[in-house]
Structure formats: structure tokens, C-alpha cells
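Worked Example 4.2. Read the sequence first, then its C-alpha cells.
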Amino acid sequence: MSLAGVDVLAFSPHPDDVEFFCGGSMLLAAQAGLKTAIVDLTEGELSTNGDPVRRSAEREAASELLALAARVSLGLPDGLLGTDGSHRDAVVETLRELAPRVVLAPHWEDRHPDHEAAGRIVREACFFSGVEKYGAGPAHRPGRVYWYMLHHIF
């Protein structure tokens, strides 16, 4: 199955954030026949509960339960998310490759710095992915971007 043309693409600062905070939406979308995918920005290597090996096993099990068409890990640094321009560039590249119609991203106001950074990076990348002169590859801007709640109600 080609990864291009994903209907709903959710960005997760760490493996498990999408599952906790918008997994129900992802499951409903897949059950409705939509092509869904998750992009993990980091491997969650600083996790208090677990480690990258455990996170990987959990990620595989959750991906199957959510009936995802794809799950991608960008391998950005946990705890340092958004501290380098290459982080946004990696998200732009992924948006152009997967060409999603809808993006789900963490709200940019949260107690965890990586969650805030992820929201900001995805917001900026969704804009710049549609700018032809930015980066490589054909421009693509998602039709809609929706923010999911983490620790703060909005």
C-alpha cells in the first residue's frame, strides 16, 4: 500500500501520546475506511515509564489495534524537540511524502516542553510544506489541521 494520500495523519511527540490523547479519533477514522497514519517525532528515550525497546513493542501493538496504514518515526531527540531547524524540515518532508488531507497535532500549550514544541513545529511545517520554494519535493499543504488536547483543556 502506498503511503501517499493519507486521509488522517496524527503527529505524536513521543510514542504513546496519540494513543492517549486522540487514539479514539484515529480508531474511528480507520473503522470508517479512512487511511490513517501516525508520525512519532521522537523514540521516547527519556520516558519515565519504560525505554525505547518497550516503547517499540507498545507502538507495534497499538498500531495494529488502531488499524494504521503506516507508522513513521522521525527519531528526533526526546527532550530537545524543536531546538534545531532540521526538526521542522523533517516534518515538512514527511507531510510532502504522505500528503495527508487532515493533520492532528498536539496543542502548542502544554506543561511538557516537547508537546509544546511539537505543536509549534507541526503548525509551521503545515504552512511551509505548501510553499513550493521551501525544501525539496512537490509542495503539499494539508486541507485541515486540528489540535488535540494533552494536559491543558482548551
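Now turn to a second chain, presented in exactly the same format:
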Amino acid sequence: FISTRPKQWTKNLLIYLPLLFSVNESWQFSEITTFQPLFVKTSIIFIAFCMITGAVYIINDLLDIKNDKVHPVKNKRPIAANSLSPNFAVTAALILFGTGIIISYFVNIKVFTAFLFYIALMLTYSTLLKHHLYVDVISISLGFVIRALCGALAVNIPISNWLLICTGLGAFLIAISKRRAELVSSENQSRIQRPILAKYKIDKIDKVIPLVGFTTIIFYAVYTLSAVNLPENNLMLATVPFVGYGVFRYVWIVKVNNKGEHPEEIWFKDIHLLSTITLWVFCSLFVLVFGR
């Protein structure tokens, strides 16, 4: 259970995003009975995706066992600490993979295909892609896009390409910020913590982060104006300031406080960021309920 990294499951909450944005389109806010079956199906996919990502983390720990054993923090992970045998870990991973795939198949064939693509992407990442500069963070970003896509495919909700692009850019910002934080914390032992870190330079990353953050805000603004499934009165523009502040806050946390190595903790521990995310959700819901 520890090896599946439960804290990381918060990333899979992105699966619920299409359901939120389809209010008064695929389901009616005033009729809870139209929401319940879609919510149940989305939750099933969320659980199945947690199984898949948990299995990926186990496989990743097995492949990184040598590096993890000499890492000051990662050496406490069950596999690296020899508290979980590799054979049992492989068996657990296969069971999780199999269960998640079977669940996705019974939801629909599109979700099943997306699950297979995600597994193939992550296994390729664990064995090959994570050793290449910037390709590693792009691969991680694509994984977030697949999460959002799975949420839409699970309940046959149309999703804007602009929203998928914004999701990918936001994920890229988080991933590249994580690399920066790892570089800062590793000091002169970056190769031990993560071999690819030796190829990254903080000054280069510091130029990329603001550019990606600004681009994310611009594309989100374009999304609020261009997506065909949003209110024609452009009221969704009211949510842009929340996204803008959230991005700037995250960049500030990363560059000034030198954090970002554990983004799942930042989201819930920084009161400003948590409040901004909460307000963005409620503001979006308000616009979609009363603006459509």
C-alpha cells in the first residue's frame, strides 16, 4: 500500500474535471438524479486509475532500487528498504494492472484504450523516457492530459481541446518545478537522487518556468472564450484571475521558497493556493450553472 504512494492519488482527482465542466449540459444542477450515475461511473474510473498509477509506482521503485538504496530519503521506501520483496511487488503490480484494466474495459472501450496508452507511456517513461532531458517532464504532463481525457470518456462528455492543452501546460509547470526543487535539495548529489538531474540547470529552468506559467494563463483565457461547450456570454472569463493568481502563487513558492519537490503537499498545505483552487471551482460552477 505504501509503495503505491497514496499521496500521489490526489493527481487523479483531475478525472473529475470534465464532470464539473459539463454541469447543465450532460447533467442538470437542479436534478441530482442526473448527476449520480455520472458521478458513480467517474468514481469507478478514479479508483481504477489509482490502481494503475499505484502499479506504475511499484514498477518504478523496482527499476530504481539501486539508486533508491543510496538516497537519503528514498532508501526508506519499502522495496529499497527490503521490507517488501521484489517478487511480491511484481505480483502486486500485475494484480493492480489487471484489475484496473478489467474495470476500464467494462466502463467502455474508449476508456480501456486510454488506460492501455497510459500504461504503455508510463512503462516507457520508467525504462527510457525519464533519462532524456525535458522528454521526462513532457511524458509526465501527457499523463495528466490522459487523466482528464479518461474522465470525459468515462461518461461520454465532450471536452475542449483547449482545456486539454491547458491541463498539459499546467502539468508541465508542476513537473519542471519539481525538477528545480530536486536540484536545489540534492546539491552536489543530483545524479544519486535522479540521474537526469545532472543534465538540468537551475538558471535554464528559471527561464522556462515563467514562460510556461504565462502561456498557461493565456491558453486558459483563450479556452474561456473559444470552447463551444461554455456559456456564449463569456462569463467564464471571470475565472481567469483565479487561474492567474494560482499560477503566480505556485511559481513564487517554487522560486522563492525553493519548494515544489512534493506538489501534492503544496496544494493542500499552502492556504493561498488551496483557497484559490476552491474559489476557482465554485466560481466555475456558478458560471456554468447560471450562465448556461
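Notes for the reader: Residues 32-63 form the longest helix (32 residues). The mean pLDDT is 90.
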